[in-house]
Amino acid sequence: MTAPPTEKPSADGEWTVGKIIEWTTAHLKKHGSDTPRLEAEILLAFTRKCPRIQLYVQYNERLTDPQRAQMRELVKRRAQAEPVAYLVGHREFFGLDFQVTRDVLVPRPETETLVLELIAAAKPHPQARILDLCTGSGCIGIAAAVNLPAASVTASDISPAALAIARKNAESHQVESRVRLLEGDLFGPLGESDQFDVIASNPPYVADGEMATLPPDVRLHEPHLALQAGPQGLDVIRRVIAGACGHLAPGGMLLIEFSPEQAPAVSQLIEDAGLFDAPRLIKDSAGLVRVIAARRRTSV
After folding, report:
1. Is 136 left (phi over 0), alpha (psi -120 to 50) or beta?
2. What's phi and psi for 251, nearest 5 deg?
3. What does the pLDDT look like over 210-267, one tens digit per residue?
């Protein structure tokens, strides 16, 4: 177990904003953080209830005793691998701020690739009908709704706690009238005749045997229900592809996020479904194959 951070007084005996940032950066780096300076600033801005950029004009200001106590607790928890997003209760995604709790996955930059493809696929449809499966925090469907003012989004999730967070996020971005949230397993809560122009999903895709190898912040704190998906990590993806055949309008687009090494298997599942044109593989900002796009044939 990680020991609580031990403060060392600065030369002048004062804990200023600047010195707290420096100390926290060093402490988090020692405990394995890849972005210790950024995390230090996010935690301190949260503690001081100010925008992160404002810290730079407060550099010589002292923290109050309550602020120091709160910061000490946050740093302790982060050093124990608790995600920063859970500590501060929100995460930026696609230029938007989303509330997050331990009931949902932390939105990740690579998933923005899925949103970019979703928006591009929906734009040709004047009033696009979008389905977001395994919505979690709602970040995918809500980002699409914000950027496509005429679109309607249906989002489903098996977790009522996750849907409660998605509902708050839809309200905070003022798209709740165009985002329909449904509780249930994948396509289960839909009507049999419900059709969509775009179906997008960031489903669970971690193989059972890989769960133990995940980074501690993911393995110990994020919901396994949203991560784990059978021996090859394909159990949910397989069901998404099968169910999409009955709910995707002719010419509509299916978009799925997956792990890069799963690309051949996911491509084969698309081909085996027999209803899609040749799929397209899309790389994320890190240059890794992350999303598959498959258009349903207009005639079979």
Report:
1. left
2. 85, -5
3. 999 999 999 999 999 999 999 999 999 999 999 999 999 999 999 999 999 999 999 9
Three-state SS string across the chain, please?
CCCCCCCCCCCCCCCEHHHHHHHHHHHHHHCCCCCHHHHHHHHHHHHHCCCHHHHHHCCCCECCHHHHHHHHHHHHHHHCCCCHHHHHCEEEECCEEEECCCCCCCCCHHHHHHHHHHHHHHCCCCCCEEEEECCCCCHHHHHHHHHCCCCEEEEEECCHHHHHHHHHHHHHCCCCCCEEEEECCCCCCCCCCCCEEEEEECCCCECHHHHHHCCHHHHHHCCHHHCECCCCCCHHHHHHHHHHHHHEEEEEEEEEECCHHHHHHHHHHHHHHCCECCCEEEECCCCCEEEEEEEECCCC
Residue whose C-alpha is closest to residue 229's, from 264, 257, 200, 196? 257
Residue type, 283: K
Q: What dotted CATH number matches 17-80?
A: 1.10.8.10
Alpha-carbon gap, residue 60 to 69, rounded angstroms:
19
The pLDDT tens digits for 97-150 are 999 999 999 999 999 999 999 999 999 999 999 999 999 999 999 999 999 999
pTM above 0.85, yes or no: yes
Report domain 93-295's class.
alpha beta
Residue ranges per structural domain of the chain: 17-80, 93-295
Q: What is the mean pLDDT of residues 57-75?
A: 95
Q: Could you give the CA distance from residue 68 to residue 29 in angstroms, rounded to a whole number?
A: 20
